[in-house]
Amino acid sequence: MEKNPVCEMLGIQYPVIQGGMAWIADADLAAAVSNAGGLGLIAAMNSNGEQLRAQIKKAKELTDKPFGVNLMLMSPYIEEAVDVVCQEKIKVVTTGAGNPVKYMDKLISNGVKVICVVASVALAVMVERMGASAVVAEGCESGGHVGDTTTMALVPQVVDAVSIPVIAAGGIADGRGMAAAFMLGAKAIQMGTRFLTAKECNVHPNYKEKVLKAKDRDTIVTGKSLGHPVRALKNSMTREFSSKENDGVTTADELEKMGAGALRRAAVDGDVKTGSCMCGQIAGLVKEEGTCKEIITSITGEAEKLLKIAI
Fold first, then answer.
1. Are the C-beta atoms of residues 144 and 131 closer than 8 Å to each other?
2. How far is CA 180 from CA 5, 66, 83, 136, 193, in A?
3. Does an H or E element contain 140, and which?
4. What's the chain's average pLDDT?
């Protein structure tokens, strides 16, 4: 049986990558996912270099398995984050929220495998040309910052356009979703929303409970007028944001102020009314907590049965 190229490349047991969720994807969650056989990620988000270094060192104490860092390219500390990743000899990063080309040479020359999150074929082709080891084709069903194209439409088009492995993301929370992603040509999956309900996830319990109670139509996309749309669960904040975004009166600066700090309020403080509970459309399928090990083995086991191949 042909070995999975993503598992081979990253030195992991299962082709499952944890999403780099800001204020959520910390050392505890990353280590738990990696210990369970997947690839855990620490979210660099807007952390400065020393804050990121502290999380990396903590993860190294919690696991001897491979883990990576998600670099948010629009962070004011991105230069520091790239330096720390190289100094700490992190073997893999995922990149999102911007164009990674400026940093790819430095990362690659320091032995870092760069996996770029893409929402279009054009970006996938460009980052492959620049040396990316793989791409995450992320559909608009996902939580957080999203593009316009669905996972079902995006993944096969990216697969046809590049020769590097494609990882599917957006709308995947069980073995059926994983099997579908493999049928579309993906070699691995990335999940964020499903890991929000992991027992090792330190997101505030109010946030976790809101995800577990979500139904199929409980998410909304806001921020399109600002050029960076975000999918989150519906609450008073997102409804008000959506209303003001379309009223023709509220300015872009006023909208930016509304959104500032909203994710932290929800994820850290537990304010699920005026905070932003970023979450994918698949939340309606997530009904219970579980350890990272339980989540990964359940999903891969179900997918193997459906596909009748060893994942």
1. no
2. 18, 26, 37, 15, 18
3. none
4. 95
- Give the pLDDT of residue 96: 85
Structure tokens at 84: 């720390």
Contact 142, 123 (CB under 8 A): no
The pLDDT of residue 59 is above 80: yes
Residues 6+ apart with CB under 8 A from 33: 16, 18, 39, 40, 41, 67, 195, 198, 292, 296
Contacts of 157 (CB under 8 A, 6+ apart): 121
Token pair in block for residue 263: 């994710």
Angstrom distance (rounded) from CA 244 to CA 262: 16
Whether 175 contacts 184, CB under 8 Å: no
Residue range 63-71: mean pLDDT, rounded: 97
> Taking the model in full, what pTM does it have?
0.94
Residue 151 near residue 137, CB atoms below 8 Å:
yes
Determine the CATH number of domain 5-198+288-307: 3.20.20.70
- What percentage of the chain has pLDDT greater than the value 90? 89
**Helices 236-245 and 252-259, packing angle to 10 deg:** 170
What are the extents of the domains in the chain?
5-198+288-307, 205-282
> Residue 310: pLDDT band by 50, 70, 90 thresholds?
low
pLDDT at 248: 87
